[in-house]
Amino acid sequence: MAISTITAGLLTLAILSFLYRDNPIYKVAESLLVGVSIGYFLVITWSTTLMDLLFIPLFSEHKISLVIPFILGLLMFGRFFKGTSHISRIAIAVLIGSGAGAAIPAMLNARTLQQISATIQPILLESGWLDISAIVVIAGVLSTLAYFYFSREHTGSFGWVAKGGTYFLMAFCGTTFGYTVMSRMSTFIGRMEFLLSDFLHLTQ
C-alpha cells in the first residue's frame, strides 16, 4: 500500500473521530489541513500569479505597463508598518473599485437580468398547448412578490395569493437545503468508498 494512501486513510479517520467527540487527534488533523491548504495556496499564488503574470513579464519580457500593479502591490505592505499604513489605502481603493466594477455587471446579469428573462416565457407551446412550467413560474413570481408587498394587509384574495408565495418560498428553501445535503453526502460517500476499498480493502 502506498504511503500516500495510508496517510490519507489515517487523516480521514482522524477527521471522522469528531463524530464521537472533540479530541486531540481531530485537532491535529484539522490544523494540518489548514496549514497544508494555506501552504498550497501560497505556492500556487507565487508560481501562477506573481511569477507568471507579474515578475517574468515585467523583468524578463519588459512589459512596462505592469509597473503600476507592481507598485500597488508594494503599497499593500504598508499596512504592516504604523508610519506607512495610510498609503495602503490607495491600493485597497483601486482593488475594491476595480473588483466592484468587474463584479457588479456580472452579478447583475447572472442574478437579475437572467432571472427576469427566465420569467418572461411564452405560455403556449408550438403545438398550441399550454406550457405548464411557464404558468408555474409566473404564478410563483407573482405570489412571491405579493408576499413581500407589505404596503397592503394580507387579507382576502390578496392574502391567499401571498400565502401561495410562502409555499413557493418553502419549496425553494427545501430544494436548496436538499441540494446542500446531497452534496455533503456525496463527499461523505466518496470518503467511505476510499476507506473501505483503497485503505482497508474490505470491498472491491
Which key features would you list for this structure?
single chain, 204 residues, 6 helices, 75% helix
Summarize, please.
By secondary structure, this protein is mostly helical.
Strand tally is 0
Helix/strand/pairing category: mainly alpha
Q: For the report, how would you describe the main beta sheet?
A: none
Distance between termini? 15 Å
Helix amount: over 70%
- Report the order of strands and helices: HHHHHH
Can you describe what's shown?
With 204 residues, the protein is mostly helical. It has a domain at 122-204. Helix content is 75%, strand content 0%. The chain has helices at 3-16, 24-60, 67-76, 88-119, 132-147, 156-199. Helix 1 crosses helix 2 (24-60), helix 1 packs across helix 6 (156-199) and helix 3 (67-76) crosses helix 4 (88-119).
Topology:
Layout lengths: L2 H14 L7 H37 L6 H10 L11 H32 L12 H16 L8 H44 L5
Helix pairs in contact: 1-2, 1-6, 3-4, 5-6
